[in-house]
Design goal:
121 residues; binds zinc ion; mainly alpha; 0% strand; elongated; 7 helices
Length: 121
Amino acid sequence: MTVTERLGLYGPAVRQPTPAKVRRQPAPCGSYGAYQRHYKRGETPCRPCKKAAATYIALWRARSGKTKHVLVPVQVLGALLAAAPTEVEEWAEQQIGANPVTAAVAVALRDGRTEGDVLDA
Ligand SMILES: [Zn+2]
């Protein structure tokens, strides 16, 4: 008698019954899952699915560090820098230069996007 037989761990009796497969709802169009479904079926993805896939991939690229730069409106950059601590503003100046930082902050201040607006939003 083997160790497994002595312990009663032999044969099909110890196997757990396979649970019935749970059917999920298919991903609705406009999601990355639906885009993949189109692709696997050899279909041309619909516009909402293409848009969802583009967004998903862009976010993945940003998360994974594949994307090094993004296009941000000057007003948004300026508002963020205006609200940022001085060290962050100085770091940004080292990264992109003093002129772009000064210009972006000036645009934000001109448009009334002050620190309070950013924090209240
Ligand atoms: Zn679709």
